[in-house]
Amino acid sequence: MDIIFNKVSHIYQPNTPFEFKALENVSFHIQSGSYVAIIGHTGSGKSTLIQHLNGLVKPTSGEVKIGDYVITPEKKLKDVMTLREKVGIVFQYPEHQLFEETVEKDISFGPQNFNIAQEVVQKRIPELLKAVQLPENILQRSPFDLSGGQMRRVAIAGVLVMDPKILVLDEPTAGLDPRGQKEIMDMFYRVHQEEERTTILVTHSMEDALKYADHVIIMDHGKVYMEGPPLEIFKDQEALNNVGLDIPEVIQFLNKLESKFHISIPFRGQSVEQLGKEVAEAFKRGDKSE
Amino acid sequence: MSNSFIIGQYVPGSSIVHRLDPRTKITIIFFFVIIIFFANNLLSYGVLAFFALLSMFTTKIKISYILKGLKPVWFIVIFTFILHLLVTKDGEVLFSIFSFEVYSGALYKGLEISLRFTLLILMTSLLTLTTTPISITDGVESMLNPLRKIHFPVHELALMMSISLRFIPTLMQETEKISKAQASRGVDFRTGKMKERIKAVVPLLVPLFVSAFKRAEELAMAMEARGYNGGEGRTKFRELKLQRVDAFIFIFSALILVVFFFTRV
Ligand SMILES: Nc1ncnc2c1ncn2[C@@H]1O[C@H](COP(=O)(O)OP(=O)(O)OP(=O)(O)O)[C@@H](O)[C@H]1O
Ligand SMILES: [Mg+2]
Question: Keyword Cell membrane, does the record have it (chain A) (predicted)?
């Protein structure tokens, strides 16, 4: 399912003194199966954008296409449930959506609404718990007795259990400890690779964008500011600095290396270990042009 | 969703009405509400309507926006109007629909009540449109201050009011957020049978209550941590002070009042 935005604008509270243009003429095309990172300063319209993906909000003008489901300003949404079953959204601070008596019931809540058979859900739950790294005995506990990090994992499991074709993540690791962040991001990446899922990640972390995404969209003041493969986007430090963003630390480091020691190592997505070796080798070879 | 909740929401501005002391506005509206029941002919209603419209234009808020805010009360206005037509049987019969006779007295009374209602709502919404909730609270607190002598908990009341007002928008945002999250998990708030729709509210209400209680606890702790211990001996950060504009508006309103009592019969 490709996702196409065609000149989408969204205005909050139109025709009032509080009118606010959150999206303006946003157009892009996301290929099915890709991993896209959406980056932008706070208030740039990222959350607004992703709410178009399952019909939570409609564009004020323009057109959104998800597969063959079309959302336009005029038409009423038909069969929006079929769309929401395919597009799973993990919202900012998803733990706020927990409400059931037990973790198990909360995880099964989504599938029930979409009439997914109970047996199927029961079969998925053990894998899911492993994926989000929660122990099995948590199932019968109340979600409100858990720690913040555990609640977050339960909420994420509650979205993943629906096995959405398109997975949308709105800063899913905000407020977690660094290790938890890495675990969860790696987990999402594994989930992404299974079954050609499309993943859309809203993030403030350039490192995550560089590490996982194969396409980056930079938003600024409701508009698409830049768009392209991460390696290309992160070449242009100045353009990013202009909208209050920065490039990943690895690339900053390589840039410094080049300007200080004239050692040029192109970044192709190497791991830190690999880069370390390359830098060491470059020094040994005496690449320095003094 | 948030679009329907804007009734009477504060609109920032710098008009005279915005700059007035909240106590001035509250006092004038208080008297307006009483005075309106003394109006008894077209001219006296005209004077009041003139005053209300003048205030409305002075705020410099878009008229269409103010009228939109009044939308939910149109229903009540029309409802009471029709009710009057049906039950009041004064004056002569004007015409009859389906053997139902409409009396001239009923028409007159119905119009009068509707006009009164509209003017009342208009004036009070002008207050909330041009005054931040916090300064309304400050105004009320300062006006109730004399009641302290009889041990009326003025400060506590004002605190309660300002905290509630402060958290209404937060709660509304939260409602919107959670209902979007649950809608993404397949909850349908819009269609379905009554029973299903009531059931759909549970996943919304539980998280809302949980977060409201958590917030209350956090707020209480934060206040205590910053040394809050009740109103006794507490000084104010925002001191209310009457300005020259307030005096001017008071005099102007008093003049209108005098004119009003001349127009009555
Ligand atoms: N319901 C709403 N009513 C009015 N304005 C809104 C509403 N929701 C968002 N906005 C405004 O739209 C703009 C974009 O909001 P959005 O939540 O999409 O930003 P964001 O890029 O997700 O920011 P963040 O990184 O902080 O999550 C903000 O300026 C916000 O104030
Ligand atoms: Mg956001």
Answer: yes
